[in-house]
Amino acid sequence: xxxxxxxxxxxxxxxxxxxxxxxxxxxxxxxxxxxxxxxxxxxxxxxxxxxxxxxxxxxxxxxxxxxxxxxxxxxxxxxxxxxxxxxxxxxxxxxxxxxxxxxxxxxxxxxxxxxxxxxxxxxxxxxxxxxxxxxxxxxxxxxxxxxxxxxxxxxxxxxxxxxxxxxxxxxxxxxxxxxxxxxxxxxxxxxxxxxxxxxxxxxxxxxxxxxxxxxxxxxxxxxxxxxxxxxxxxxxxxxxxxxxxxxxxxxxxxxxxxxxxxxxxxxxxxxxxxxxxxxxxxxxxxxxxxxxxxxxxxxxxxxxxxxxxxxxxxxxxxxxxxxxxxxxxxxxxxxxxxxxxxxxxxxxxxxxxxxxxxxxxxxxxxxxxxxxxxxxxxxxxxxxxxxxxxxxxxxxxxxxxxxxxxxxxxxxxxxxxxxxxxxxxxxxxxxxxxxxxxxxxxxxxxxxxxxxxxxxxxxxxxxxxxxxxxxxxxxx
Length: 476
Hints:
Helices cover about 45% and strands about 15% of the residues. By secondary structure, it is α/β, with parallel strands linked by helices.
């Protein structure tokens, strides 16, 4: 747990020493300006006497009196700073020796080392941002692609929080009216319009359900869109993974059952991070280890956003049909996309396989469900069709992200809180339909308000804050 000690002045490097020309050290707290003055001798005036949003040049001397470095101090006065406190950012040369020595001087002057995420925690505690925005700061820092950055940045600017506050405000208004009724219970006065309440519950429950459902896509974009490569043994799955990555990551062999476990690698395609999962080949086997690998294959298929169904077109029609049928049985077309890859086009014709696929789809009556999915001829060995596949993968996600106004939930804590809120509101709807007493319905609404408020930090505990900010990097 991180203990809240806002009376302290803290400091930490905000950059990694030795990785560039400049390092930045941050100081924040009530004594930040005075401590900076003890360490930095400015050429004109003192840091304490300077206005906010100004910069001062100065020198830093070591304990022995020798010049350690020439620095620039950026000054921010409360409340107009990241943390809402007096703050100084010292730009020095990126030598590990200089940074370490400068930190030591700051400790001697009265600052203490910041804990992970303590700068952002102070920003939250001082009202500079809510908890959802604070968590988005960490997501912005860790974003590995344009799509993840766009989602995190929108949350950091308060888009998600605004939606939650609007829902919470409407529920608070209604529950207040319901509780007012309890004060006039003997007069049997009804302040809260029940038809409006039911309509509001429908709208808010639907909105929350949409946010919960968005987590699958939001989490995929944040951590990499999971793409399962599935098919029979020796259809070229590992060769495909290597071709997509441009390196020999997976072992390729003519021996059946070479891949016994899943292999995962990430690849950035047009600003979107994909997590490719090479799976064990699907076939009947009595070999214990291979059977475990196939079970894991089925699990990975169920967890994937996109399934690449590999078909070896050099095989006999019955074998091809069995492979297609098994892949189709494992795909949930309501939330997953399927791309059937007809592999080995460099040595065989695709016509027979295409006929089989068309027949199998019609037999399963899935034409309408898979209309947004694709059949693509490729050669994993020669690379034919691989660039087309990359473009197709990127296009599937761009279509989903086309609406820039749509909020995507990316945080497991938020999903759990939303799920709990929805459960409480569904109890209210069921209860009102069955004549639930006003006081009990009001309590369920208050539970929903609590869960929604816990996302933005309207309700929080030291333990929750400690768990969240402990995952931040030092200096942020």
